[in-house]
Amino acid sequence: MPWIQLRLNATATNAEAIGDELVESGAVSVTFQDSHDTPIFEPLPGETRLWGDTDVIGLYDAETDMKIVVAMLENTPLLGQGFLHKIEQLEDKDWEREWMDNFHPMRFGERLWICPSWREVPDPNAVNVMLDPGLAFGTGTHPTTSLCLQWLDGLDLAGKTVIDFGCGSGILAIAALKLGAAKAIGIDIDPQAIQASRDNAQRNGVSDALTLYLAKDQPDNLSADVVVANILAGPLRELAPVISTLPRQGGHLGLSGVLATQAEGVAAAYEGLFNLDPVAEKEEWCRITGVKK
Q: Is 98 a residue whose pLDDT tops 50?
């Protein structure tokens, strides 16, 4: 189905209100996009995080008369007559198919491949994780996931228990199991992530070794030899008292979802209980690892 896109610029103080006006004018969705390509941070639940210069983008059905839409918006106090905007026709594409066509097998470390479930594996003798992320985060294409996969590939996981805190698609927990871990535990706040992790575990033949919990239901006494949390800098700092209890003494901790500029603040929340390694960086993102004292 083709669409029409209306784009206009706003500020952090008025972007949400302008977005509401676009919805009132018939937009089926509204997107906020940083006009200076500042890294986008996932908001906490109930929070909308904006930027100093924000593009507000409304998506309209292709049959919409945009002259009427613009006239409606010109009558709003926020915008007024002659407000600057751009109207674009979006090509009719099968966006899901296009994404699938561009998701290729990827190698991490020495042994590990992440392979889309709809493609053939390039090396049948490698450690292959067959993945369909569904609606959950985690394909290996993002630098933070890549950093975590490389770290897991470099550990001796034979017989170990691994906790994937914020498991998303289950990619890290499943990779750990395929790399030799005896047991993995996935935790997430999103039921869709739990379902995606369960489906991917079945696809890879490791569902019997993977236990999944919504965060609100996780047991109080969980512990593991290896804990990986690929979430965000803010939650990593806020949840440090919880995450720090999960690795056993001498156990490994891996944290990611952190920009290089945020690494010092996140590391400070854990350095009291962990001997931390030098920070690993990739494309402005980083990974913080250490061993429980």
A: no
State how far the Cα of 9 lies from the Cα of 148, in Å rounded to an integer.
36
The residue count for the chain: 293
Facing residues of 130 across strands? 115
| Mean pLDDT value across residues 173-180 | 93
CATH number of 97-292: 3.40.50.150
Domain topology for 3-92:
Alpha-Beta Plaits (3.30.70)
Q: What is the 3-state secondary structure (H, E, C) of the chain?
A: CCEEEEEEEEECCCHHHHHHHHHHCCCCEEEEEECCCCCCCCCCCCCCCCCCEEEEEEEEECCCCHHHHHHHHHCCCCCCCCCCCEEEEECCCCHHHHHHHCCCCEEECCCEEEEECCCCCCCCCCEEEEECCCCCCCCCCCHHHHHHHHHHHCCCCCCCEEEEECCCCCHHHHHHHHCCCCEEEEEECCHHHHHHHHHHHHHCCCHHHEEEEEHHHCCCCCCEEEEEEECCHHHHHHCHHHHCCCEEEEEEEEEEEEEHHHHHHHHHCCCCCEEECCCEEECCEEEEEEEEC
- Residue 71 CB neighbours (<10 A): 12
Q: What CA–CA distances, in Å, run from 91 to 10, 62, 88, 179?
A: 25, 10, 10, 42
Same fold, 3-92 and 97-292: no
- In one letter, which amino acid is 42? E
**Is 133 a residue whose pLDDT tops 60?**
no
Residue 138 has pLDDT above 90, yes or no: no
Mean pLDDT of 232-242: 92
